[in-house]
Amino acid sequence: MITISDIAKLAGVAKSTVSRYLNGGSVGEATRKKIERVIEETGYSPNKFAQSLKAKKTNMIGTIVPRLDSFAASQTLIGIDEQLRALNYQLIISNSSQSLEREIENIYTLANQKVAGIILLATEITESHIEALRKVQIPIMLVGQQHEEYHSLIHNDYEASYELGKYVLENGHRRIAYLGVTERDVAVGVNRKKGFQKAVAQQSGCDVRYFETSFKIEDSINIVPEIMKDFHPSIFVCATDNIALGALKAAHIMGLNVPKDLSITGFGGYDITKITFPGITSAKFYYKEAGNVAAKNLVQLVNGEELKKVSLSRYKIIERESVDKMMD
Amino acid sequence: MITISDIAKLAGVAKSTVSRYLNGGSVGEATRKKIERVIEETGYSPNKFAQSLKAKKTNMIGTIVPRLDSFAASQTLIGIDEQLRALNYQLIISNSSQSLEREIENIYTLANQKVAGIILLATEITESHIEALRKVQIPIMLVGQQHEEYHSLIHNDYEASYELGKYVLENGHRRIAYLGVTERDVAVGVNRKKGFQKAVAQQSGCDVRYFETSFKIEDSINIVPEIMKDFHPSIFVCATDNIALGALKAAHIMGLNVPKDLSITGFGGYDITKITFPGITSAKFYYKEAGNVAAKNLVQLVNGEELKKVSLSRYKIIERESVDKMMD
DNA sequence: CTGAAAGCGCTTACAG
DNA sequence: CTGAAAGCGCTTACAG
């Protein structure tokens, strides 16, 4: 373990001079050369803890994710990592395993580690969240959900869903099963549903029924056949790609041809939806890009710069083969 | 920011006493009570940096992953996280984006952050890797690949592949395309191939051809039709599930019925392989469990305990519907 | 441009 | 059981 004192001694200068050299202060040419050489030779690198202890801040950014094994989370993380690296920050990923409690815990733990800021990939924002965020007093970026008190980057769930709804309707579907999730998740449960409802409201003669399932593929596999029996829709409009994946599997199990016998749409644009057979039409979000933006925004916050309260990320309807064109 | 001095003052004792209280040293009953109360009231929690600066070690464990968006990596990470949390260590995830260079960089960065140990989800182990690992002098666990100098946890690629090969042969397949990857990846490129070859060697009348592709689904989608044209195997034995996923997509594009016209096997047991149509027969590895073990092992190393050089993780052949039973 | 000194928040011998 | 002091490796005014 080689320290700043060693460098100072070897270079024949004071510690403070080495420190100044390290931090871009004014150092004479000759001194600079000497220090440079010694550092080069020794492979010295400053002790982060000592630095942080003085500076009372770090270059670490914490990101709390609800789960590590989801396409959306992974891609967002990749985007955050990419950007943070470019900005010279170190990313710390903290997994909450879909436990709201652990999410809160992680906020405190990260604060305790003196991260410069926190990115929260949010699902639900409860009172305890707000309480924790208020207490820790650290710059925060919310991703995926919004809250009036904090800065956020959200996906354009409402509009994307509206547009996807129009697409479904334009293709002649009238008997529709909408397969959503809990409304406690405002982005996915509420906004996607509302966007879709807006599209439906503009079209007469629709028979739309709303159902609720979980985020798990398995649950979707199970509920779809039941709905088919009772309601017999021509299409399932699913609130996430995982739900759509389950619907597709269910269709195959029932021996139904997709899209002829049953159409399906997803939401999210997970990579896997282009690999399935048939490919699934979906509203794609650019998660990686969103991660980029979230990271950039947070660093602005950390630097005390101005930032608008909410940023919107891009989306695009990806048309594939899972929706029957009933008009033809 | 409340410090140990504040607590000491409020409790009317010396800093050293508070420190002793915190670290389980001997403290009188009355003193203990007082300190306890003050800490409770203030919500004090010690500054990690100051602690680490003194102790010269931390409770952080670094994990370097080649990518964040792979089933294997995510699951392993979840397992590591789970175990580390239980053992009171903090996980730092470091993404190398499939760049060997960045992997090396990350080793140094983590060392610089004074992590107590490093888990490396390895793909290739080059001389630079070894050099870096030697330099940083930190306990290391390799996952997925092995090296005589370091402790590792490996998947049983060889045996799993042997068994899967036997299964394929038992089902009557003789004209077989083996779709592997670069041999620089010893685990996936070499061991899986060798295991399969062993099975083939025990069966006469086989026409097996070996092909190489990348880890990308797209490349597999492209190469499979070419192979079909030239060779026309009854089955593709794929070195990873992603490759199998590509083969399945290619089959659908070619209008082939799987498994009747073309059979497919995968490797890894990714969740998605049970959702596809048909479900893909695959050699499943228990990644999460492997992560658990790797974490536990590393902590043993950190604590200076004995540990056998290499641990093997479990596997299981998962039979689904993608292999035609030609014997019937 | 350069150096001596103080201090960041802890822990650890060492006395008592 | 308890406290005063030194020290971990840095940075930051302050002099010169």
UniProtKB/TrEMBL annotation, chains A, B:
Cross-referenced PROSITE patterns: HTH_LACI_2
A UniProt-annotated Pfam family: Peripla_BP_3
Domain HTH lacI-type residue range list: 2-55
An example Gene Ontology molecular-function term: transcription cis-regulatory region binding
SMART domains from the UniProt entry: HTH_LACI
Phosphoprotein listed as a keyword: no
Domain of life: Bacteria
InterPro entries according to UniProt: HTH_LacI (IPR000843), LacI/GalR-like_sensor (IPR046335), Lambda_DNA-bd_dom_sf (IPR010982), Peripla_BP_I (IPR028082)
CDD domains named in the record: HTH_LacI (cd01392), PBP1_TreR-like (cd01542)
Keyword annotations: DNA-binding, Transcription, Transcription regulation
Name of this protein: LacI family DNA-binding transcriptional regulator
Naturally occurring in which organism (per UniProt): Metabacillus arenae
